[in-house]
Amino acid sequence: MKIAIAGCGIAGAAVGYLLASQGHAVTIYEQSAQCGPVGAGILIQPIGQAVLKSLGIYEEIHQKSARLNWIEARKHTGKRLIQLEYQRLGSDLYGLGVHRGLLFSSLFSLARQAGALIQENACITGYQVSQSGVSLELESKDSAEVFDFILATDGARSRLRKVSGIKHHGAEYKYGALWTTGACTAVQDRLFQVVEGTQKLAGLLPIGNGECSFFWGLTAAQFKKFQQQGLDVWKKEVLQLCPESEEIVTDIDSFENLTFTTYRTMSMQTWWSDRILFLGDAAHPTSPHLGQGANLALEDVWVFSECLKQAVDFQSACNHYEKLRKKKIRFYQQITGWLTPFFQSEGVVKGWGRDLFLPVMSQTPILREQMLKTLCGFKTGWFSSNFQ
Q1: Residues whose CB falls within 8 Å of the CB of residue 326, separated by 6 or more in sequence, listed in order
Q2: Domain parsing of the chain, residue ranges
Q3: So where does this one cross the membrane (predicted)?
């Protein structure tokens, strides 16, 4: 089949490789002038690691990344809120802190080697379905070939989702984050976060080679205020909350060294319609508080490629895919939506509740087990998991 993929990020490159490897004629359309990663570090959980192993790039990624044995969240007073050790669920389990550029480059190389064609500076703004297939509408007004179907992997702000006619609803989170990457030896074996109420959040994610991704949660208005006040005012506030970030923060000499990112949540009534399927963040974007985005995207593309391999046509593949994925995706959307305001929101009540109950939950064996299964990506619903 002839397949068009909208967006060449992690999901787009991965599914491009998988489907080209199956013998399909694949063309990936990327709106940027040059394909490349957006963002800093990502946390690859055990479920995402399983996909990388199936793709044959796990060892390459593992060697250049950071093995994370636990996650820790702490209050500004020094009191620990949560400590979850992967090994409490399984002795061979751990997280993997990965530079997004490393993962993207590996997947992009695979896609090209498998024969996927890459069209850069090509933004798909819409499409037209006919009996013979689906034709793409490009921002440049250039004509495109007719394809059997489109896979939309064009991210949380998917243009194709807006024009698909599929009912969807969601919202933009008020809080986003400033991100950067740099040398950091203070935190090496865990994802580390520190909070003050629900309005201050800083974190460090080791990504290998003595580096960490640093993130600082704030609203667009707060970011604008810091820009007006100056970099030193921001640095002082960061280091008061998270002195472990000093090595990275000291090297920042301009706000241009930081990337401000906002997040949104979105639910679609269905992930597919005639000749188009949405995968990854294009289908189910959430906030990053559970660290599941890249993992769910990798699992999405793997499951769909297997469904297509077994199906007689695109529609039956989509039906099977949605049945397999719906319950799990809905769970992670719901739990992330519930969790996010307890870490980033206005007011104080949610912060008090979090500080009171989270330490108890993470040290209660039956609750800790469920939290770890959720973290690892093993949960398939509120009362089910694929971890034995």
Answers
A1: none
A2: 2-170+263-385
A3: none
Q: Which uninterrupted H or E stretch holds 175?
A: strand 175-183
Total residues belonging to the chain: 388
- Beta strand 149-152 with 2-6: parallel, antiparallel or unpaired? parallel
User: What are the mean pLDDT values of the chain's consecutive 10-residue runs (388 residues total)?
Assistant: 96 98 97 80 97 97 97 96 96 97 96 97 93 92 86 96 95 94 95 96 97 96 96 97 96 95 95 97 93 96 97 96 98 95 92 95 96 97 90
At 40 the three-state DSSP class reads: coil
Q: What is the pTM of this model?
A: 0.96
From the list 68, 142, 4, 8, the residue with the least C-alpha distance to 291 is 68
CB 134 within 8 A of CB 147: yes
d(CA 293, CA 332): 10
Question: Cα–Cα distance between 253 and 213 in angstroms, integer?
Answer: 17
